[in-house]
Specification:
This protein is of the alpha+beta class. It is built from 19 helices and 22 strands.
Length: about 625
């Protein structure tokens, strides 16, 4: 709707839409359709009185909708009226229930800072300024599954603990116990507050600040805005006037937009794309992981992180400029390579949350709210193309998906399950979080204006791995939040180190870009098994002895068949002996490596046995 129309008229239309009433033009007439209880005498009277203005407003809205953007109508007078949850918010609300498999987790961000001393009264005042400035920090879920902003609320207080008189080890132990709880909070969304601040006084005059914020009301960009403004307020800097639009305004406009041709085109795009999207990567899991979580175990996240130094990041920026790649597209490609390195299947789907704020108002990027959506990216690391080609393919997908960003990530996920006949238990739990930076200042850089960053952690229901990044003072901060107990012991740490090594390697070595298997050039070990169960002793048997035993017991039975015909166990033993003798006669030294470049067939099976029998070490090579 155009700003030239009276706000009260726009608010009237939005109020009708909230009640299920739609207005449309039919030639010169105003058509009203909706539940009878919403069409009261006063509503009908106003519709008749403002008919011409409403028709003009609908015409303007039609023009704006055809431009591809929702129509937003700021309505500050309705700020505390209930409004619908977004798809993401509803998922986060349901996902924190322990009844949901891999749930019992609130979407959540935690940080811990250290400083010689914090001005706690000032810090508390600054946080409460944010509560007043950003309505979604006072949001609650209502009994009927809507959300509303509290008009009155209690101040958020910083709680304190004093461990300064304890010895260092005991103080660290108690701090760790407090951190373990605060970093994994799961708040009741029907109550205020969904945030928590602790100040812990430590030996030696140090102070630790622990902060917890639920993410159902604030996406990644919102948290960046909050921390940036918190740091500015703490240092006595004036903030600009608050945003001239609210998350509530945005949600109502976005919901009305779902009947537009633009939304229909985006939905049609996703209905087509999801048909070709494969499942999530099949990574090595603990054998009992699914059973434990179905029986009620709550996922707990652990962060792995590393900073790539300035000279490496500077080199990376140069390579990305040369290749026309953005940093998110590059890191997503590295993440896909890492997943593909351990995945049983080389074609899989990665879940990519991103800040999906349509430019419907100049202040939309300064708002706090859960605007985020997700896109689903198809990755193929089968080795038939180079890393550079795969990165370009992912970049192309990202750009195309962004042009069809009007459909929520949860709706896309539902379409994917429908297209493949899958139930709600089928997840895409490996995510790469791509968030823009607020005013080109990263979340971590803003935190470092308050103190030294000691700990960071995020968590999300039904997510197992979450890769994130920040640029901080010319360095590239990479992180991976992982549900450790899902995977083979030590695997998340190994995967993260591989991911970080690959990003650094590609920054410094241009040859890796042209390799079909860049990770293999990093000499990273692989656990191939999809599931890891308890350790079972394996008999100390040599393959050549197994062949001898089989030949004695089943000599006349067939053991293999190929294009050359069938071969019995006795024939196989004789062939291996003859080839082994020839290798010995040729002077094969004990332990020497023998390269085997063989097409599929009997010799792929027999030649390694012959090398072993001759005392050598077989080294199979791929014919391609």
């Amino acid at each position: 709707m155009s700003a030239e129309y009276a706000p009260e008229l726009m608010a009237f239309v939005l109020d009708l839409r909230e009640q299920g009433v739609s207005l449309s033009r039919r030639q010169s007439e105003l058509v009203c359709d909706g539940p009878p209880e919403a069409l009261t005498d006063s509503v009908v009277t106003r519709l008749r009185a403002d008919k011409q203005a409403l028709l003009e407003l609908l015409d303007a809205e039609s023009v704006s909708v055809d431009s591809g953007l929702p129509i937003i109508a700021p309505a500050p007078e309705d700020a505390c009226r209930p409004f619908p949850l977004t798809d993401n918010q509803r998922a986060y609300w349901v996902g924190r229930s322990p009844e949901v498999t891999y749930g019992g987790v609130g979407i959540h961000v935690f940080f811990e800072l250290e400083a010689p001393a914090f001005d706690l009264p000032r810090l508390e005042r600054c946080w409460n300024v944010l509560l007043e400035r950003h309505p979604m920090l006072r949001a609650q879920v209502t009994g009927n599954g809507m959300q509303e902003i509290a008009g009155e609320w209690p101040l958020l207080r910083i709680r304190e603990k004093d461990f300064s008189a304890l010895d260092a080890d005991e103080a660290d132990r108690l701090l760790g116990a407090l951190r373990d709880g605060v970093s994994h909070r799961c708040y009741a969304l029907e109550e205020l507050h969904q945030a928590e601040l602790w100040a812990v006084h430590m030996p030696g005059g140090r102070c630790r600040l622990l902060a917890s914020q639920d993410g159902w009301c604030a996406d990644g960009l919102s948290v960046q805005v909050m921390v940036q403004e918190l740091a500015a307020l703490y240092h006595g800097e004036a903030l600009p006037p608050g945003p001239g639009v609210t998350f509530r305004d945005y949600v109502l406009a976005e919901q009305a937009f779902r009947s537009s041709p633009t939304f229909a085109r985006s939905l049609a795009y996703w209905k087509k794309k999801v048909r070709i999207l494969p499942p999530a990567p099949a990574l090595p899991m603990r054998e009992d992981a699914e059973r434990r979580f179905r029986e009620g175990e709550t996922p707990r996240f652990v962060r792995h992180s590393r900073r790539l130094p300035r000279h490496i990041y500077a080199s990376l920026e140069t390579r990305l400029r040369e290749r026309g790649l953005s940093l998110p597209a590059f890191l997503l490609s590295c993440y896909a390579e890492m997943l593909g390195h351990w995945s049983e299947d080389q074609q899989f789907t990665v879940n990519v949350p991103w800040s999906n704020r349509l430019p419907v108002h100049p202040d939309v990027n300064r708002c706090v709210g859960e605007f985020a959506s997700t896109t689903l990216i198809r990755a193929d690391t089968s080795g038939e193309t180079t890393f550079a080609e795969r990165a370009e393919a992912i970049r192309g997908q990202l750009w195309t998906d962004m042009r069809h960003c009007h459909v929520s990530g949860l709706a896309i996920l539902w379409e994917w399950r429908q297209a493949h006949g899958l139930g709600p238990e089928t997840l895409l739990p490996y995510i790469f979080t791509s968030e823009p930076e607020a005013d080109n200042q990263s979340f971590i850089a803003s935190l470092e204006r308050l103190g030294t960053v000691c700990e960071l952690l995020s968590q999300t229901p039904q997510v197992w791995l979450d890769a994130q990044y920040n640029v901080v003072d010319g360095e590239l901060y990479l992180s991976l939040d992982a549900v450790e107990s899902m995977f083979v012991e030590g695997l998340p740490a190994l995967m993260f180190e591989t991911y970080a090594d690959l990003a650094a390697g590609l920054a410094e070595d241009p040859r890796l870009w042209e390799s079909p298997s860049p990770i293999h050039r990093l000499s990273t070990s692989i656990k191939y098994s999809e599931y890891a169960g308890p350790e079972i002793p394996i008999a100390d048997l040599e393959l050549e002895r197994c062949l001898e035993s089989a030949a004695r017991q089943r000599g006349g039975e067939y053991c293999l068949a190929d294009a050359e015909g069938d071969m019995t166990w006795s024939e196989a033993r004789q062939t291996v002996r003859e080839l082994s003798g020839r290798l010995v006669d040729a002077g094969l030294a004990k332990g020497a490596c023998v390269a085997l470049l063989l097409e599929k067939g009997r010799w792929q099976s027999l030649a390694p046995l012959a090398v072993l029998l001759a005392g050598g070490t077989p080294v199979p090579l791929a014919p391609e």
